[in-house]
Amino acid sequence: MEIKDEVKSPGKISRTFITLYDVFQFMGRFFKEGFLPPYEGKELMKQCYDIGYRSLALISLTGFITGIVFTKQSRPSLSEFGATSWLPSLVGIALLRTLAPLLTSLIAAGKVGSSIGAELGSMRVTEQIDAMEVSATNPFKFLVTTRVLASTITIPILTFYTAMVGMLGALLNVSLSEGTSAKAFFQSSLESITFLDITASTIKAVIFGFTIGMVGCYQGYNSSKGTEGVGKAANSAVVIGMFLIFIEEVVSVQFFGLFRT
Amino acid sequence: MEERKPLSEHEKVIEINGLYKSFGNYHVLRGVDLELYKRENLVVLGKSGTGKSVLIKIVVGLLTPDRGEVKVLNQHVDQITYKELLALRLKVGFSFQNSALYDSMTVRENLIFPLVRNQRKLTKGEITSAVEEMLDAVGLLHTINQMPSELSGGQRKRIGIARTLILRPEIMLYDEPTAGLDPITCLEINNLINEVQERFHTSSIIITHDLTCAKAVGNRVAMLLDGKFERQGTFEDVFNTSDDRVKPFYDYNFIQ
Ligand SMILES: Nc1ncnc2c1ncn2[C@@H]1O[C@H](COP(=O)(O)OP(=O)(O)OP(=O)(O)O)[C@@H](O)[C@H]1O
Ligand SMILES: [Mg+2]
């Protein structure tokens, strides 16, 4: 995208607005073109699989360890009140509401966001995107729409997976320390989880997933020419992605707090 | 080598008038006028960085001109809608300087990619035979299942050309098809360009630094000097001069 002569050297503030305008245009294009046929179904499936596959191992490990550690760290404070029996429900709520969505998205921002940024960035630099453009196909649809949709779909699924694995970690810890049975553990932890918790987490994970895909694609698709453009695209995809996820987390805690009494 | 003649009596398929393009303060194209006639091979010469690639990118609407008129198949490229531009791009093949093959796809998938997205009604059999026919035409049928990273530079160029030809364009734009290749592969590519002209009745612009290629494929030669086409015509017309900006081209290629 070239900037015309009139805006020769825009100041910092106007540059920010130009970028913001650009970002909204990019998002607008996604909503405008994403849901119109022809669909790139095969590519979408491939991207979903890729995203899941790429982050699964790290997410499993992190989720499991977090479950164990969080349970272990929470035990002393609860036992002061003789309330260690609350552990399963405490861990369940913490995992579902915050830990799982945040862990999953941060890991995905690192693994998925950077690889989308690098992939699209190198396609931009080596003119593969231009090549799609001149062969009368729509590179935005094939590259961006599929990736954004894929991460929007996959991150929520991964989030619930992380919560599950985290619970298994907690179960391991609890059953070793307190000898709680799996049945009793899940009964008490699931009891305290409400419909609102599940809805809120799903919405949050959808937003996080959309953010990761969008930021990665935006950075890569608009990456500057030259090899360093690729590195920059991958790097800023991670940094900006994580930054936005934290902001969204804070905002959504406030927002969903309105529904909790 | 048979003498190739200008085809200026044919109708014009590309018409460029007073084209300007700058990047910031760097004025690349400064008043370019150029015509491409039907079924002709026009060779565009010029020093590195004079804006040859920029020129053909403007022709397919990858870059927008600052000023001037660009008519391709009687349509103003910078005034049509995106949909019309897509329809026009179907008729204009563009072979990139660096081949620009999709490196996550096999050769077969590279060729299928533009085909199935532009002709949705093709059956599996028709797609396969179109791909195989085109790969055969560039002499690389055996690479069909390879990845671009496994190909040599010359093979990549030819696959790039095949991927472009599979849409049966009326106009072909070749950006340095022989750059960086050995003399034998250059000859093969020259022959390919001429074969394409004859077999598919295309009109082409060929950008090159290689005067042997220019002589072998060009009906007409145009030389980009200081942002304009100051010299156009037959090979002899262009090089029969003592202009210091032109002579080195010839001397380097033929007198060593
Ligand atoms: N997208 C762009 N943004 C900024 N400058 C550009 C862009 N594209 C090309 N240029 C500049 O325009 C000039 C002409 O580039 P172009 O690629 O057309 O040269 P060329 O004649 O094809 O050279 P070569 O023979 O080396 O390929 C170059 O100096 C380049 O820096
Ligand atoms: Mg060039």
Classified by CATH, the class of chain B is: Alpha Beta
Mean pLDDT of chain A: 91
Rounded to the nearest angstrom, the distance between the terminal CA atoms of chain A is 49 Å
Helix content of chain A: over 70%
Q: So, CATH architecture of chain B?
A: 3-Layer(aba) Sandwich
User: Distance between the terminal alpha carbons of chain B, to the nearest Å?
Assistant: 21 Å
Q: Give the SSE order of chain A as H and E letters.
A: HHHHHHHH
- The beta-strand count of chain A equals 0
Main sheet makeup of chain A: none
- Global outline of chain A: elongated
User: Spans of chain A with pLDDT under 50 lasting ≥5 residues?
Assistant: 1-7
> Could you tell me which ligands this complex binds, including any ions or cofactors?
adenosine-5'-triphosphate, magnesium ion
Assigned CATH superfamily of chain B: P-loop containing nucleotide triphosphate hydrolases
The most extensive interface, with participating residues per chain, is: A-B, 18 and 30 residues
pLDDT < 50 stretches of chain B = none
How much of the residues of chain B is beta strand, in percent?
A: 25-35%
What's the domain count of chain A? 1
